[in-house]
Amino acid sequence: MNRGSANLDVTLASPSVERRVSDWKVIPGLTSSDHNVISFRVACSQSAPPSTGNAVRKRYLWKNTDWKAFRKTLKSLTIARSAELGCPVVDPCVNALSEVLQTACDTHMKRAVVGRLKPPLWWSSDLGSELARLGRWKRKLRAERNAFRKRAIRRKYADLKRRYNRACFRARRTAWRSFVTGTGNEEPWGPVYKWLKAGGTRPSEKLPASIRKMDGTFTCSLRETGERLLEQLVPEDSDAT
């Protein structure tokens, strides 16, 4: 914040960062500089405060924007809101600037609706902490120039990566077992049964789980089912032919 007549400083942040910021204020007279001090608090916990807005956000697609028309609209809007934009009070000026930019973007840019990514059901805060720690060691590895220390950091990073992968595997396995147990008890012929009957995701195994044989019994495996189907649908040539 400048004490004299100068351009207004604007602070921009993504929605995820904005939710962590609180107690934003200007502290006048703290320094001898022409600029006042801006202070705010940032929550550094692993989990950010919950979002108060909609889970779906919109993003501007600026690739095919007519920038000549955009600048013309922006200029006309700026002139129309010149009184508010030149206001010495910060809040009205910031609000006017935000509305001018948003109106110009809405007029000349298409928007894509982007759903907020949700973590998988097996994800946990502990895995998030391990992933963050792994990222810090990866950055250390990239920044290190000393060959001896870089080898030590690489060994540490590889060890942390193995631990993280094992933790993810255990979490996925536990979640899958819980899902199969719960769904199997509530819906024995539900999605788990259908998935297993179809042979998972491989098209080659999408065969009936069992079929009736000529003697009245049923096949016991996918392999046996496939063999019986081949015998009936693609019979071998007889010796007479």
* β-strand amount: 5-15%
N to C succession of SSEs: HEEEHHHEHHHH
Number of helices, where a helix is a run of at least 4 consecutive DSSP H or I residues: 8
Low-confidence stretches: 202-207
How would you state the average pLDDT, rounded?
A: 77
Oligomer: single chain
Topology, number of strands: 4
Spatial separation of the terminal alpha carbons: 97 Å
**Helical content (DSSP H or I, runs of 4+):** 40-55%
Protein name: Retrovirus-related Pol polyprotein from type-1 retrotransposable element R1
InterPro entries: Endo/exonu/phosph_ase_sf
Short description:
This is Retrovirus-related Pol polyprotein from type-1 retrotransposable element R1. By secondary structure, the protein is mainly alpha-helical.
Describe the structure.
By secondary structure, this protein is mainly α. Among the domains are: 9-50, no CATH class; 60-111, no CATH class; 125-187. Helix content is 49%, strand content 10%. The strands form two sheets. It has a two-stranded antiparallel ribbon with strand order 1-2. It is elongated and about 95 Å long. Mean pLDDT is 77; it is low at 202-207.
Which characteristics define this entry?
single chain; 241 residues; 8 helices; two-stranded antiparallel ribbon; two-stranded antiparallel sheet; 10% strand; elongated; mainly alpha
Give me the secondary-structure topology.
Blueprint: H1 15-18, E1 21-27, E2 37-42, E3 56-61, H2 67-80, H3 82-85, H4 90-108, E4 110-115, H5 125-143, H6 147-186, H7 191-197, H8 222-233
Antiparallel strand pairs: 1-2, 3-4
Helix pairs in contact: 2-4, 5-6
